[in-house]
Amino acid sequence: MGLFDRLKARLGKTRAALSDGISALFRGGRPMDAALLGELEELLYNADLGLVATEVVEELARKHKRGELKGEEDVRAALREGLLERLPSGGGEFTPEAKPTVLLIVGVNGSGKTTSIAKLANRFREAGSKVLVGACDTFRAAAADQLEIWAGRSGVDIVRRQEGADPAAVAFEAVEAAASGGHDVVLLDTAGRLHTQKNLMEELKKIQRVVGRKIEGAPHEVWLVLDGTNGQNAIQQARLFTAAVEVTGLVITKLDGTARGGALFGIERELGLPVRYLGTGESQELIEPFAAEAFVDAILSAG
Amino acid sequence: MFETLTQRLTSAFGSLRGQRELTAENIEDGLRAVRTALLEADVEFKLARDFTDRVKERALGQEVVAGVDPSQQFVHAVHQELVEMMGPEGATLSFAKKGPTVVLLAGLQGAGKTTTCAKLARHLRDKMGRKPLMVAADIKRPAAVEQLRVLGRQLDIPVFHLEGRSAPEVCAAAVAHAREQGLDTVLLDTAGRLHVDEEMMAEVAEIAGRTSPDDTLLVCDAMTGQDAVRSAQAFHERLELTGVVLTKMDGDARGGAAVSLKAITGCPILFTGVGEKLGDLDVFHPERMAGRILGMGDVVGLVEEAHEKISEKEAEQAYQKMVLGSFTLEDMLAQIRMIRKLGPMKKVLGMMPGMGGMLDKVDVDDRQMNRLEALFTSMTPKERLHPEMLDMSRRRRIARGAGQDVSAVGDLLKSYKGMKKMMKQMNKLGLGAKLGAKAKRAALSDMSADGEVAAAGGGGLFGSLGGLFGGGGGAPAGAPGGMEGLEGMLGGPGAARPMGSSATRKSSNKRKDKKKRKKSRRGRRK
Predict the structure, then answer these.
(1) What is the count of structural domains for chain B?
(2) For residue B155, is it within any domain?
(3) pLDDT of B170-213, one tens digit each?
(4) Alpha helices, DSSP H only, in B216-311?
(5) Given Cys at both, which of A143, A259, B2, B186 links A228, Cβ 3.0 to 4.6 Å?
(6) In this predicted model, what pLDDT tens digit does every residue of B442-481 receive, in sequence order?
(7) Residues paired with B85 in a beta bridge
(8) Shared domain check, B408 and B500
(9) Interface of B with A in 87-116 (CB under 8 A)
């Protein structure tokens, strides 16, 4: 099964709502008019596209005026084009270059950081990398236990300390262990924090500094894990995390429900961050590298 | 938490200011801004449209009240609509008449169920005198059981779990266990699940079937977008929800979910999670929330809090000083301490009318208040009673004693003089309503049940709050950092006006820099 088919299958709920919705709009040979475009805007809005929905539909309205849109097929094509323009780039499968390559994983509480790290660790290991995870979430009860269980399942190494330890110290130890242990990739799990908590954002900066002191250029990547069910607040999260620790990529989770991840479009508009991976389910292998075309096609394809 | 929505609405209402009455035409701008604000806040699309339609009807249907600004009338209409959508006030958990009360917590992954379970258990025990049992029924997420056990140990609340059994079995056994142990409230912490996951939805339905919960609560992340409505609907169909807990409200999510959830499921929002500590659970007040959304502040909450923490005598004394014009630095210090009793400055300011939208600009730092207090305490009592004797040599000594620059003392004195002057003027205008029990009651009655507070405007309530906090306002620009928060609070009669002088912004930036330098990680999450 190709990437496109897998995405299509996993984003099934999204596809059903949007694509079927568009088909329903044109049912019975309904002509294009302002009311139809309004309903299309609502469909897009319901996918959490936010203001981007209005933008895209306004563009369609202009095309319609010029007589470029005849029917459903034209609208689908124009919509695909409009959405693609507004989607972040992917970058395909991540390949570690430095040795060890350090990835700092950040995000708000409950966005799915630990699960995503488990999936990424598994994926990198299967691709032949020697992986180590660092349990820098020393705040949430049993967070390190959770990571350890995952690490055990996929057979990667873990560095952890007791609850309440300094997360930066754990990060330092993890990086040190990776440097001496010949690991290729280090994934640092951090505690969930709301982007509005300044002192906790400072803590992230400290982790970043400390890791950089051990290995030059580390962390090589800072990935922000975003809950795909989040609405317009996701943009704000991306903005403030980027301001604090220069986020270099996004991981979008929980896209196996009815959530559309439409906030991605808004993030591209505001910040232009690349999306690295999509989380599409609870088991360890359900993570896909992001590809814009496949994503849009999975959303829009009829059938 | 709703700052941005507040700002949007404020600008919408700004366009109505100065117009004599509401018409279908001049209301359009306001309505459009309201709709955009709601959509950006993730309120469901149709709901936002219906909302503005109803507001329009309500606002136009109203007779023009003499002396009431049309923009206030519009605010009033929006406020009432919001309250109705999020109401009713005072919804609570229902408790079983006989045997243990069972509370089922369900929701998507990462919504905050386990944390909410612990917070709720603590709330039930400490505030309602119940004997809770927490049940670890999340056997799916690795270490979820351990997480609840750790929280149970922290709170000293028992946690129930059976190794190797299915979640419904664990829950059923837990209820029996609670009955044996004489525990009267059972909180079921279930696994996070997607509403489209048929197998998992069947599991939670089986849990409900076997335990017949008295309360079935949906735990929902306040940051959730349009999906909130879809998932809530699905959970509701399956479980017949009785209420909602909205989590992560301490972030900057505009919280449109709060409006949508209630309207779509008909279930009241019972609690809101507002922080990482286990005490950070608030009872939901639609009236106050609507007030906050509209930047009216949580005045009722503030008065209640003041009543709890500041004695009648203290308030009376402060008032007397002001009226008599014998306001000294000693009194100023007393008042600052009084305000600080109410809690962190950011929280207190958030409750003030018109301050909602300001909070993200003003970087309120309680340490600035400490610095301010340090200046006061470096003075002798005699100096505090006779500020006029503070010559340069004394000022230098005070600055040294407080470890600050001598200009800080000068700034402090400038604010003091400004306050004193304002107070005199206020007395002349008769706005500093006397704050006795009577005034407090009057103030509360201004905030009538249907949210009449907007129309009440300056006058009584804000005047009396001004009285409580020393009245005045508009202290000279360039006041020391911490003072500007105070100035905001001291807004007195003009509390509703937008506050954002350039001085405020300047000094807040300065403070941000200081904050960066002084960052210590020790204060973290203690």
Answers:
(1) 3
(2) yes
(3) 999 999 999 999 999 999 999 999 888 889 999 999 999 999 99
(4) 227-239, 256-265, 286-293, 299-309
(5) A259
(6) 443 333 333 333 323 333 223 333 333 333 333 332 223 3
(7) none
(8) yes
(9) 108-112
